[in-house]
């Protein structure tokens, strides 16, 4: 089997995890890195021992490289749409960091380009490959908690000045919103666990009184989602909170309840308290903790087997639409119907 060549756009924190994941899969190898500063791209190749990877300072140069079949986009959010459209039109398969777009128009334009190019995509809602997520999906498939009627997922991560992305993340034109810049992981988890179609969003957002981190937008939001099944979902997102990184999951069904790695079910007669299952929790904001290797294995499988990923651009568009609708609802103080 021929090795699939990978081009990485970006040289920041998450780019390193992308490189390590692709290099760990024997079916792929990083062949190029692009940065506005070619020396930074070259330094990245040296840091990861990529002796056969080229350093570029123009995206077009990499897209002309015949050794690259997959492009991984790991740049600030406002660059994703343009870079992804150019890559798709060049016939490259796409691993897209979230959010894929900061506006509905950008999302739709990108979807159209990907469909026209008929390339494969995976959006980096990487927590889907976290062992707790996989365990919860298994519990739901077994019917341990029955039909869900309420689901809550919280993303609480104080992205302070110690993070390299802080300087640009606080800007409205790049960060977007609390959900778009980070809380979308919780929105995707909500959609992934509840299933079905979201039909309405209602939200509120605010900023702390003194705004010590200098956000240009409200970094805290509470979003309620109504699904076509009748289930309700709630996502709390705070990226200026003071405290440890927290990713809470609570799923309430007519036969039981899941609370992170704890389960209570009517189907287990005699159960008197929570049953706790040891697993790896999504309890760190460090990207090195995230299961990129599982995501990459899945994506390469999809490419080689010519099938669509459940985390493809089209299949995760709803999570992005919920983020956009949340911002509209909070701003205009009204419910927003979906699809937009």
In short:
The protein is an alpha/beta fold and 340 residues long. It has helices at 13-24, 38-47, 59-63, 80-89, 104-117, 131-141, 166-169, 172-175, 178-194, 292-304, 317-332, and strands at 4-9, 28-34, 54-56, 70-73, 93-96, 121-123, 148-156, 198-206, 220-227, 232-238, 246-253, 256-259, 262-265, 275-276, 336-337. Helices cover 34% and strands 24% of the residues.
What does this structure look like?
It is built from 11 helices and 15 strands. The protein folds into 2 domains: 142 residues, Rossmann fold; 179 residues, Dihydrodipicolinate Reductase, domain 2 (2-Layer Sandwich). Strand 2, helix 2 and strand 3 form a beta-alpha-beta unit. The chain is of the alpha/beta class and 340 residues long. The model has no long low-confidence stretch (mean pLDDT 97). The chain is globular, with a radius of gyration of 20 Å. A 9-stranded mixed β-sheet has the order 14-13-12-11-7-10-9-8-15, covered by helices on one side. A 6-stranded parallel β-sheet has the order 3-2-1-4-5-6, with helices on both faces. Helix 9 packs across helix 11.
């Amino acid at each position: 089997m021929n090795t699939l060549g990978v081009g990485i756009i970006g040289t920041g924190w998450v780019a390193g995890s992308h490189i390590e994941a692709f290099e760990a899969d024997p079916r792929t190898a990083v062949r190029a890195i692009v940065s506005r500063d070619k020396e930074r791209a070259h330094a990245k190749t040296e840091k990861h021992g990529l002796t056969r990877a080229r350093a570029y300072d123009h995206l077009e140069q990499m897209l002309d490289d015949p050794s690259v079949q997959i492009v991984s986009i790991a740049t600030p959010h406002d660059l994703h749409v343009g870079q992804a459209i150019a890559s798709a039109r060049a016939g490259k398969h796409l691993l897209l960091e979230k959010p894929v777009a900061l506006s509905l128009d950008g999302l739709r334009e990108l979807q159209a380009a990907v469909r026209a190019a008929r390339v494969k995509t995976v959006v980096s809602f990487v927590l889907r490959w976290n062992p707790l997520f996989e365990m919860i999906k298994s519990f739901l498939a077994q019917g341990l908690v029955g039909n869900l009627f309420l689901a809550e997922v919280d993303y609480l991560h104080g992205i302070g000045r110690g993070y390299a992305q802080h300087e640009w993340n606080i800007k409205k034109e790049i960060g977007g919103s609390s959900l778009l810049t980070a809380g979308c992981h919780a929105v995707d988890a909500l959609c992934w666990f509840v299933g079905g179609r979201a039909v309405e969003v209602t939200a509120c957002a605010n900023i702390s009184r003194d705004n010590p981190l200098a956000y240009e937008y409200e970094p805290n939001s509470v979003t309620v989602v109504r699904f076509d099944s009748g289930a309700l979902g709630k996502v709390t997102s705070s990226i200026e909170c003071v405290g440890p990184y927290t990713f809470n999951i609570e799923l309430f069904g007519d036969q039981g309840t899941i609370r992170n790695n704890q389960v209570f079910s009517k189907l287990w007669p005699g159960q008197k308290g929570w049953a706790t299952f040891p697993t790896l929790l999504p309890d760190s904001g460090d990207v090195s903790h995230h299961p990129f290797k599982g995501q990459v294995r899945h994506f390469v499988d999809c490419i080689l087997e010519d099938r669509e990923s459940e985390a493809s651009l089209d299949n995760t568009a709803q999570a992005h639409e919920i983020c956009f609708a949340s911002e509209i609802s909070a701003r205009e103080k009204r419910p927003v119907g979906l699809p937009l």
